[in-house]
Amino acid sequence: MVTAAREAGGPVRKRSTLKPFAAGDIFLGCTYLMNVPGDDHAGEGRILQFDRHLVPKGTLYTAGTTHLVINLRFAPDGVLWACDPFAHAGVRVAPDGTQLPPVDFGDRAWGNAVFPPDGGVVLGEYLKGDRPYQGGDMRTLPGTNVVGHGRIARFDTGFRPLGEHDGGTAPSLTGFHGITHTALHPDGRTYTYVTDLGMRVHRFDLGTNTPLPDLVAWPGGPEYRQTWATGVAYRPDGTLLLLRGSFIDCIDARGTTLTSLPLDEYGYAMITAATDGRHVFVANIFTGVMAKVDLETGVIVGRIDTGLATPQRSLAGVAEYAGP
Q1: 52-61 pLDDT, tens per residue?
Q2: For residues 109-143, b (16+ Cβ closer than 10 Å) or e, as one string?
Q3: What angle do CA 254, 256, 259 make, to 5 degrees?
Q4: Mean pLDDT of the residues in the chain
Q5: Which residues pair with 282 in a beta bridge?
Q6: Residue 188, by phi and psi: left (phi above 0), alpha (psi -120 to 50) or beta?
Q7: Smallest Cα–Cα separation from 283: which of 318, 246, 248, 320?
Q8: Is the pLDDT of residue 11 over 60?
């Protein structure tokens, strides 16, 4: 097993050292929380870079963010995207390691992005409702008393808006979550998403802009505690990888669970399929550990320990660069 050295402990370093991207590089959204009184999500936004062997390589201190930097994902052109929904801010990083100028997607709490094959981008609204998270300040949308609507928004290749849609969200255990985790099916049109700590896997047809039946849903209740949905990703064959806190369900197109892979601890909240089709990367927000898991054996074959365990709770995104 390969274990990377800790990179994230100690004082905040302001100088960004991100390197040009190389195939197999791993990127983690790992904000350095600042212990702001009354706001436990506020901090210095950071993206950590590691090479294919999980060795530290560089750090980007993100401009324009004030809270958790989450949901890292690569666009087809190799640009790395991330979001800070609490600050209504997006982050885009070019393959040369420099942060690109921000795009105006409106004053909204967008929290994730997918990239349909016909071009453009689909954004999911991370926040929903009028209940802010406990212990922090949350911006309401201009002219409203809500933090968000939990909608799906489409933008063309020039980032011009094409429309918004209500696909529906699961009841939020926190009271403020909307569309928190998303994945695009290999068919290029089935948009799959969950509400963090919810009990439904939603689907939306990007071709017709209409909701599809849930892939799976559970009744919820005390017996489902800590088995809720915390992340989604797809394998190339269309098998859904549903992260459920301490295990991964592999689910077919009919919603049948093919197998469940146990993880070492509870708290995994982000999942990304590796570019090799065999492995998956999962990030644990409680322990600050990213684990690389072999989907065929269930074995954890590599780890990155960021050193930021609870109460930091800031490891909230993982992505792998496929190469140019």
Answers
A1: 999 999 999 9
A2: bbbbbbbbeeeebbbbbbbbbeebbeeeebbebee
A3: 140
A4: 93
A5: 271, 291
A6: left
A7: 318
A8: no
Residue 184: partners with Cβ closer than 8 Å, 6 or more residues away: 114, 115, 116, 122, 190, 191, 192, 234
- 66 neighbors 87 (Cβ within 8 angstroms): yes
- Through-space distance between the first and last CA atoms of the chain, rounded to whole angstroms: 28
Torsion angle, alpha carbons of 132, 136, 142, 145, to 10:
30
Look at residue 39 and give its three-state secondary structure.
strand
Specify the amino acid at residue 164: E
> What distances in angstroms separate CA 316 from CA 48, 180, 297, 309, one per listed residue?
11, 11, 25, 12
Residue 31 has pLDDT above 90, yes or no: yes
Q: Residues 252-273: pLDDT tens digits?
A: 999 999 999 999 999 999 999 9
What amino acid occupies position 16?
A: S
pLDDT at 222: 86
Pairing type for strands 56-61 and 46-50 reads: antiparallel
Q: What is the pLDDT of residues 54-111, one digit of tens each?
A: 999 999 999 999 999 999 999 999 999 999 999 999 999 999 999 999 999 999 999 9
d(CA 84, CA 138): 12
The type of residue at 311 is P
DSSP 146-191: -SEE--EEEE-TT--EEEEE----PPPSSSSB-S-EEEE-TTSSEE
- d(C-alpha 183, C-alpha 180), whole Å: 11
Structure tokens given for 194: 């969950």
Q: Are 61 and 84 in contact (CB under 8 A)?
A: no
Q: Output the six-digit token pair for 313.
A: 């709770």
Provide Rg for the chain, Cα atoms.
Answer: 18
